[in-house]
Amino acid sequence: MVTASASEPRWRPERPPLDTPWTHQVGPDNALPEYPRPRLVRPRWLNLNGVWEYTTPGRHGEHILVPYPPESALSGIGRHDDRMWYRRTFEVPADWTGDRVLLHFGAVDQVARVWVNNQLVATHEGGYTAFSADVTDVLRAGGEQELVVRAEDTGDRGTFPVGKQANDPGGILYTQASGIWQTVWLEPVGPAHVEWLDIACDHTGFAVTPRVSGADGHRVEVVVTEPGGAELARATGAAGTRLWLPVPEPRLWSPDDPYLYDLTVRLLAADGRVADEARGYAGLRTIEVVLDGQGRPRIALNGRITVLHGPLDQGYWPDGIYTAPTDEALRFDLEQTRLAGFNCVRKHVKVEPARWYYWADRLGLLVWQDMPNLPVLLDNPPGPQAPPVRQARQRFEAELAGMIEQLRGVTSIIGWVPFNEGWGEYDTARIAAEVKAADPARLVIAGSGVNCCHSHPDGGAGDVYDDHTYVGPGRPEARDERALAAGEYGGLGLVVEGRSWPGEPQAYEMAADSRELTARYAEVSRDLAGVVRDNGLSVAIYTQTTDVENEVNGLLSYDRRTIKPDLAVVAEHNRAVIATGSG
């Protein structure tokens, strides 16, 4: 990997209301330097994170640390702008001569236009999906190249999915994150190259469809190996075709054994020459709804009925807002989730960078992936055909399809949640059916917390009926062929002095100290175990992993410096809940 130096490294971080253990590790030469696409890896690449010039209407001469959003302290800006201009220069490494050069963006919120050397190379809508451009033909012959990005983001005043971002944060809505908020990078490839691997699996092997570009008479070869070891399967076929690779004596991925196989893909020219090669990984596992011994619909992982118990994970940071300060920080929340005895996590109305899912795969956490919701301001439109509403729904469905396509090969993701508690919800049954058709091998919760939004009945759509009750847990009862979930419960709060966001702290129930919080967690967990046993509950999601701004109902403080309950007691009860209903 090569790190590009910024042309004018004049950057100073703002002071966040709370810092984290990683805040002061961030700087111009250490802005998320890790390889950003773990599921398709090539050895050569150029990281463009670092200090960029930053201009907004009426303000010039500022500098921003990419990829931290301008609202964040780590960016060095510390405010929101509806319209943002980013600029930097770079040089293409000498050993890339003769290669095609691809420019990649992990995410830019909400509309991005990209120029290289004054030539428009990309336009992208939607703040949660990656995009790329082949910039080879606009590069100058040697020397300095100019990269300019224009981003527009009107937050929850617009018609794009926003999740919990808000122009006026408060309560359950938080500070918005605009512009570039994931890694920007370059990579060299041949004229014929693999763009992506679409991977599906069952308990016996992998179905791999390599997506290729520039291939003319090429063939694709995929090899499955043990981690760093022996070859287990090999298949070849025409470029772009689906290849089936049965794995002998398969070892299935699970939270107890998050075993991942290595994959190598090669694009072979007609003469046998290797035109491109990349490496990745994947795990073997299945997820489905089955009937238990009492005839109740239950979720089964790898054919075994399994209770999925985990926290609601919002993915916010006091110093980086939407962007974790470091890769270690990104991994930390998931490690703490495992230490707390959970086996899953609900990624709540946000899409994370690819490395978050990499760590979920490696650490062994089952992931329920939410689609970020449309602005709640659109929930009461003047009519379903009003132009802003039509446009918003078109954008929602386009980004939903893009999210599924981008994440479909992630081993740890076992289910999709298109809607939460009626926020921006419409055509629930149709959307759920389209999600299932796009990815039949995963489960769908059509409307999480459908009991909270009677104006949006789900019509029995999806694979799981999901109840939200605070403090709860709720006691949903089987009413059809869907498994049961307590998709949100808990919300037990504790204020930690010196570890709280400015403003009035909020929780569904407050504890006086850590001992009381631990005791209440144990009490609620015993109640939850009874619901699992008596009602056949399959999923339980506790609110939440960390405090988020004024919400103080996290197991960890917002700055990640304090674990609020006794984690050993929490883990004991979480494992007991899982054991109660699994078998």
TrEMBL record:
Region forming the signal peptide: none
Ranges of residues in domain Glycosyl hydrolases family 2 sugar binding: 66-149
Keyword set, alphabetical order: Glycosidase, Hydrolase
Disordered: annotated span: 1-35
Top-rank taxon: Bacteria
MF annotations from Gene Ontology: hydrolase activity, hydrolyzing O-glycosyl compounds
Transmembrane segments: none
One of the protein's GO biological processes: carbohydrate metabolic process
Positions of the Glycoside hydrolase family 2 immunoglobulin-like beta-sandwich domain: 214-285
Pfam families assigned to the protein according to its UniProt record, in alphabetical order: Glyco_hydro_2, Glyco_hydro_2_N
Family: Belongs to the glycosyl hydrolase 2 family.
Protein name (database record): Glycosyl hydrolase family 2
Species annotation: Amycolatopsis cihanbeyliensis
